[in-house]
Every structure is written in C-alpha cells, then in structure tokens.
Amino acid sequence: MSSIDSKLRAFGELVRQGTIVPQPEWAPGRLKVGVDLGTANLVLSVVDAENNPVAGTSWRSTVVRDGIVVDYIGAVHAVRRMKEELEERLGQPLLRAATAIPPGVHPSNAKAIGHVVESADFELAEIVDEPTAAARLLGVQNGAVVDVGGGTTGISVLRDGEVVATFDEPTGGTHMTLVLAGARKISFEDAEAEKLNHGLERDVFSIIRPVADKMGRIVADFLADYPYVDTIHVVGGACSFKDFAAVLVSHTGRRVIKPVEPLLVTPLGIAMYDDGGQA
Ligand SMILES: Nc1ncnc2c1ncn2[C@@H]1O[C@H](COP(=O)(O)OP(=O)(O)OP(=O)(O)O)[C@@H](O)[C@H]1O
Ligand SMILES: [Mg+2]
User: Fold this and answer.
1) Which is an annotated Pfam family here (predicted)?
2) Which ligand is nearest to the CA of 62?
3) Atom of ligand 1 nearest to the CA of 195
4) Measuring from each residue's beta carbon to the nearest atom of ligand 1, which residues come in under 6 Å?
5) Contact 225, 144 (CB under 8 A)
6) Which of 66, 248, 219 shows the shortest CA–CA distance to 155?
7) Fewer Cβ in 10 A, N or C end of the chain?
C-alpha cells in the first residue's frame, strides 16, 4: 500500500471511530485544518505540520450546493459545531482553516464560502479549488484529478506540478440518486439509502450507469484538449462504485487510478493549504 493510501486509511478510521492522534500540549494552534463544504457532506480535517492526519469529522448536510451556500445560518452552525466537536476531542483550540470551492465558482459565491468559515470563528487561511486540493494530497505532478462529488464533476489538469486547467460541470452523486428514485418510483431519501446499500450495488449501478457515462463523457470532452494526460486520479463519493473507474477508462482511453477512501481525498488535501498559523 502506498504511503498516501495508508494516510487516507488512517484518516478514514479517525473520522469513523471519532478518535484522534494525540498531540503534544506545547503546540497549541499548530494544527492545520481543512473545511470541505460539499453538496452532500461537510468534512473538517485536521493534520499536523507534516500533513499527517490527526482528527476529522464528516456530517451529511445540504447547506451548500455546488459551492453555493444555500443555508448560510445552517452552514455556520454546522461548521461551528464540528469545530467544537474536534476541539473537545483534541483538547486544543483550532484557530485557522483553509477551505475549497469547485472550480469555476463565481467569486461572490467563493466569498460566501469564506464567510461561513470565518463566521464559525476560524481565521481563513486560503480558498483553493477542490480537485487541486485533491491533487496536492495525491502528489500528482502530471495528469488529471477528477472529483465526482455529490453535486459536480470537477477536473484539474496538472503539468510539471502546476495546475494548467480546471473545469466543473453540475453532474454528481445526487443525479445518480435522482435517476434511481425515478426508475424505482421511490423517494430521493429511499433511493439514496438504496444507492449506499453495498448488497444492491450491481443492480443500482446498472440503473445509474447513464449518469456515470455522462460523467465519463464530460471528462473525455474536457481532456480532449490535453492529449498529454495519460493518468486520471478519480476521487469523490460518486466514484465509490466498483465499476466506476472502468467507465472512465472506456470513455477517456486513459489510465484511471482510484485511491482508497475516495470521499476523504479532497477534504484531507484542503487541510494541507492551512499554514497552521506558524508565520
Ligand atoms: N458507497 C457509495 N456508493 C455510491 N455513492 C456513494 C457512496 N458513498 C458516497 N456516495 C455518494 O457520493 C456523494 C458524496 O460525495 P462527496 O462527499 O465527495 O461529495 P461532496 O463533496 O459533498 O459534493 P461536491 O464536492 O460535489 O460539492 C453523494 O452523492 C453520495 O451518495
Ligand atoms: Mg466535494
């Protein structure tokens, strides 16, 4: 297993078990924090100065949609409570945080995301774009990172470590759930539960496959201008299906790598952009 995969696996355990990696008391305020305000999930990630995972929490929420804050008070309240939860677990205050937006979000909406973080009593370290944060965690120098989240498919192209292009299209896991709900004539909530039921994965995937195909076409169309991209790193919850990577391969003709814990790549990457207030 690569060191990145083991880092992700460790972070997954911290989030699921609600545990922490104990930190020395002499270093208050040195922890780095990332706030990922996703369409489906809000995630707070904490890493140490060497970017090793320390703690994290993930809440399902619909206060933000595709990088747009649709419930400002709800978003602030949720981030505050998540911050308090981690501070309590760590026995240390969390002072600063970086956050992220999907590529192409209008500057005024990006500002609103920043305001949520500040209103939750964080000093705002930086606002990065989501697939770029994922690329940093994955250490991608050359290639593309595709983040298929709840609301959008985001793409970052990297060449020699530099982000040379980003793109975002509103197709994500939510659209998969809507297609499933329509096909099965059930509510969105029931369809979401069915989608997440591992035992039903094969049947569910055959129904939502057109959405995966659409994501594949979005990525293939965008990457047509970047023939030198030979590897795609796919992250985000919507790529959780076992056969998702194969669909991307079939549309793009490029190599596709899916890390472990694909939902946690972008959140953990965002924390790396907080300089920890060490300046
Ligand atoms: N095991 C799974 N199988 C299928 N879909 C899954 C699975 N786990 C999560 N998802 C889906 O992934 C989506 C959430 O992914 P993620 O947390 O990456 O999105 P987000 O960051 O909240 O959204 P966005 O980045 O688009 O704003 C949801 O639609 C959820 O249903
Ligand atoms: Mg996301």
Assistant:
1) MreB_Mbl
2) 1
3) 4
4) 38-41, 66, 130, 149-152, 172-174, 192, 195-196, 236-238, 240-241, 263
5) no
6) 219
7) C
